[in-house]
């Protein structure tokens, strides 16, 4: 049997070794997050989404990453304190990982392989170029706050560009469709 996202070892933000097995049967929104990014205010929308849809079976999972212009420089304890005090984040956070490059975490290798293309990434890709940043090639993660939607069976069923917010109809419709599946 091939490895699923549930089998990939990760660490919780407090350093405990875990897997995503504890979320089996839930719809997951996996997001690479950062504390010092122009998109950081998305924490607020992600937390609201989590609060609104958690009872229906949604889990938002935050994976801090420092891969983009050093926008997540802190240690795990600092990241947790920032998320708690600034955005009152209650959704699960994990230890900082790498989401691109030679040291890409196996979870992100699995996610990007399963879903190479992101909904809505054209405008953000163009914006990065406008700032003089050469965007990562597909299937690499483009930037902070890219979102992967995983169904209750652990299959990656959607991927959304960094600037597709938690309030975006494209994301909300996809989440609702997965939550509606038994």
Give an overview of the whole structure:
The protein has helices at 42-53, 76-87, 106-114, 121-130, 169-180, and strands at residues 10-11, 17-18, 27-33, 58-64, 147-150, 156-160. It is α+β, with helices and mostly antiparallel strands and 182 residues long. It has a single domain (5-180), classed as Glutaredoxin, CATH 3.40.30.10. A hairpin with a 5-residue loop joins strand 1 and strand 2. The model has no long low-confidence stretch (mean pLDDT 96).
What's the pLDDT, averaged over the residues? 96
Which of globular, elongated, flat, extended, rod-shaped describes the shape?
Answer: globular
Distance linking N and C termini: 24 Å
CATH topology-level fold name: Glutaredoxin
Number of strand segments: 6
Assign the CATH class: Alpha Beta
Q: What's the total helix number? A: 5
Lateral strand order in the biggest sheet: 4-3-5-6
Q: Report the helical percentage.
A: 25-40%
């Amino acid at each position: 049997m091939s490895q699923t996202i549930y089998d990939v070892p990760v660490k919780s933000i407090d350093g405990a070794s875990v897997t995503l097995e504890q979320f089996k049967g839930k719809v997951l929104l996996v997001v690479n997050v950062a504390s010092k990014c122009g998109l950081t205010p998305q924490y607020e929308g992600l937390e609201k989404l989590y609060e609104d849809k958690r009872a229906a079976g949604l889990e938002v999972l935050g994976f801090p990453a420092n891969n983009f212009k050093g926008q997540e420089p802190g240690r795990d304890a600092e990241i947790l304190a920032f998320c708690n005090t600034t955005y009152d984040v209650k959704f699960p956070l994990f230890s900082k990982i790498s989401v691109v490059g030679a040291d890409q975490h196996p979870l992100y290798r699995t996610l990007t392989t399963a879903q190479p293309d992101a909904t809505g990434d054209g405008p953000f890709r163009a914006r990065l170029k406008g700032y003089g940043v050469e965007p990562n090639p597909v299937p690499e993660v483009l930037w902070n706050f890219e979102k992967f939607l995983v169904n209750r069976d652990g299959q990656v069923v959607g991927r959304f560009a960094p600037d597709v917010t938690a309030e975006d109809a494209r994301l909300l419709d996809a989440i609702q469709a997965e939550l509606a599946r038994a």
